[in-house]
């Protein structure tokens, strides 16, 4: 016997729905934890496998594959069914995890991490799209708030788990740990999740996939290499920029002609969807920039230990978790949501501005309060953007809406790390040269980010100069973030609030079509 989502009163989902949501949270935890755990294990991995010069590609390969595959997974789910696409992504992720754990050199590890990334793109999209299928828009905020909580917990616990696993079991278990968790998610989804089957007569838009992949890959490489591996004005960066722009222009042109476009442009006719894409991009820009510079500031200036680096972000991530849960509950109870993007924009601007005021005398308590303000702002935005984006399209486009929202956030994070990082590095090098002369310039010539051991080896004068330099760099980076976050507030003001339905998961008449979507079916346990 089956229960339809439509038959359930708000807040009274059947037990089987809760089991599926548990599986979805495990799958999201896999994708979110992986980079955090692996990042902690990287020094040990390099010590055994060598290949220090290729270290960045262990992360870049994973990120590129995730970003490039995200829109493709969304479209595959729309065309051929969400369940099959999601299970396939889990299997690919687990294969990549097993192979990464067996890697014998850095080249193999990079290739296997790319396989992992292909699966991870489908995990993130699949979770959000399946929630969109199973849960009515009125209820969706509550569950997406839980997903934001999973994200925050992964960011806090990942480094701790990674350090513990590496120290006690060895770095290979940083990858093998995914296998039992993935097996549980795979078994639960296979046994319990039942969605309406789909079969599209149209073929996959291979040219669109190719153009989008080339465009996204070029953009991510530009933001990853620019100012680090290559100068921003170097021939390599200019070539990649040209290739990326040409590929994306060609992609947009082709999407107007393709029989089954991988990213239907008509979804951007919805004002709310377009605004949520912009807000998601900037949220990713700010969030990953903040997670990069805050631990650096606390370690270099406030003398915090790098061992428990995830705990340094606890005020920000804790506030994000609480606010996201509250936003989800309020949205579920009231059916209204516009207040949260607006409040999120205000809090984000204020939080970033306060963080830009930190100096060498700022206490951990004060910086923690500033981080909490920023976290509260991001908590108002993280999942509400996905909710509104999904509510703004027809059910047949749920997958591409979810993947597009995820993609814009991913691209925003790449740009945030690159642009804020370039500004930070420039300020650090300038201040070091001003305060410590040629010694300061030589210290930060190769990298503006020094680890704790390198910092302790510096002469007292150079160490004090570096603390002032980091403070100056953080000031510039967060001030830029505050200026860019103004766009979030402006975009939020123009959001058209369409009351969320409490019936079957389907688009509202204001943003979708008038035809009722088929209710998702789940077998009751």
Task: Describe the protein in words.
The protein is mostly helical and 525 residues long. The protein folds into two domains: 469 residues, Up-down Bundle (Growth Hormone, Chain: A), CATH 1.20.1250.20; 53 residues, no CATH class. The protein contains 17 helices and three strands. It has a three-stranded antiparallel beta sheet. Helix 3 runs antiparallel to helix 4 and helix 15 runs antiparallel to helix 17. The N terminus and C terminus are likely disordered.
Give the tags:
single chain; 525 residues; mainly alpha; three-stranded antiparallel sheet; 17 helices; disordered C terminus
The CATH topology label of the largest domain is: Growth Hormone, Chain: A
What is the helix/strand order? EHHHHHHHEHHHHHHHHHHE
**Given the structure, what is the number of helices?**
17
Termini separation comes to 9 Å
| Overall mean confidence score, pLDDT | 79
Principal-axis shape: globular
What's the level 1 CATH class of the largest domain? Answer: Mainly Alpha
The CATH architecture term of the largest domain is: Up-down Bundle
Percent of residues in helices comes to over 70%
Proportion of beta-strand residues: under 5%
Number of domains: 2
The computed structural class is: mainly alpha
What is the spatial order of strands in the main beta sheet? 1-3-2
CATH superfamily of the largest domain: MFS general substrate transporter like domains
What kind of sheet is the major sheet?
3 strands, antiparallel
Domain Major facilitator superfamily (MFS) profile: 20-500
Subcellular location: Cell membrane
Protein name: MFS transporter
Main location: membrane
């Amino acid at each position: 016997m089956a229960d339809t989502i439509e038959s359930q009163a708000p807040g009274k989902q059947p037990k089987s729905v809760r089991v599926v949501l548990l599986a979805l949270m495990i799958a999201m935890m896999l994708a979110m934890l992986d980079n955090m755990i692996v990042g902690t294990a990287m020094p040990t991995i390099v010590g055994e496998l060598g290949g220090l010069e290729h270290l960045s590609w262990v992360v870049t390969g994973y990120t590129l594959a995730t970003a490039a595959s995200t829109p493709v997974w969304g479209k595959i789910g729309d065309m051929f069914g969400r369940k099959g696409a999601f299970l396939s992504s889990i299997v690919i992720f687990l294969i990549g995890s097993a192979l990464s754990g067996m890697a014998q050199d850095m080249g193999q590890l990079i290739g296997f991490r790319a396989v992992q990334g292909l699966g991870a793109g489908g995990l993130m999209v699949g979770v959000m799209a399946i929630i969109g299928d199973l849960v009515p828009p009125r209820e969706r905020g509550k569950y997406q708030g839980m997903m934001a909580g999973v994200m925050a917990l992964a960011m806090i616990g990942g480094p701790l788990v990674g350090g513990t696993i590496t120290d006690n079991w060895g770095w290979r278990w940083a990858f093998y740990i995914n296998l039992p968790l993935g097996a549980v998610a795979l078994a639960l989804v296979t046994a319990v999740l039942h969605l309406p089957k789909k079969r599209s007569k149209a073929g996959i838009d291979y040219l669109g996939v190719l153009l989008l992949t080339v465009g996204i890959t070029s953009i991510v490489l530009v933001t990853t290499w620019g100012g680090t591996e290559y100068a921003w004005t170097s021939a390599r960066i200019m070539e990649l920029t040209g290739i990326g722009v040409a590929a994306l222009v060609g992609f947009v042109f082709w999407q107007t002609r393709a029989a089954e476009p991988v990213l239907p442009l008509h979804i951007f006719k919805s004002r709310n969807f377009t605004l949520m894409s912009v807000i998601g991009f900037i949220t990713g820009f700010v969030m990953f920039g903040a997670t990069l510079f805050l631990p650096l500031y606390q370690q270099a200036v406030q003398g915090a230990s790098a061992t428990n680096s995830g705990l340094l972000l606890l005020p920000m991530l804790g506030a994000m978790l609480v606010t996201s849960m509250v936003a989800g509950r309020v949205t579920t109870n009231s059916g209204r949501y516009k207040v949260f993007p607006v409040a999120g924009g205000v809090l984000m601007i204020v939080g970033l501005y306060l963080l830009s005021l930190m100096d060498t005398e700022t206490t951990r308590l004060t910086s923690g309060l500033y981080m909490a303000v920023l976290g509260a702002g991001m908590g108002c935005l993280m999942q509400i953007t996905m909710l509104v984006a999904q509510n703004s399209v027809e059910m047949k486009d749920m997958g591409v809406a979810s993947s597009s929202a995820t993609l814009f956030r991913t691209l925003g994070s790449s740009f945030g790390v690159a642009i804020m990082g370039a500004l930070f590095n420039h300020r650090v090098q300038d201040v070091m040269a001003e305060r410590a002369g040629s010694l300061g310039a030589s210290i930060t010539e190769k990298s503006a980010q020094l680890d704790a051991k390198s910092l302790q080896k510096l002469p007292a004068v150079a160490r004090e100069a570096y603390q002032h330099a980091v403070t100056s760099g953080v000031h510039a980076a967060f001030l830029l973030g505050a200026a860019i976050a103004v766009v979030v507030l402006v975009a939020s003001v123009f959001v058209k609030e369409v009351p969320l339905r409490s019936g079957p998961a389907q688009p509202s008449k204001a943003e979708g079509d008038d035809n009722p979507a088929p209710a998702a079916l789940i077998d009751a346990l």
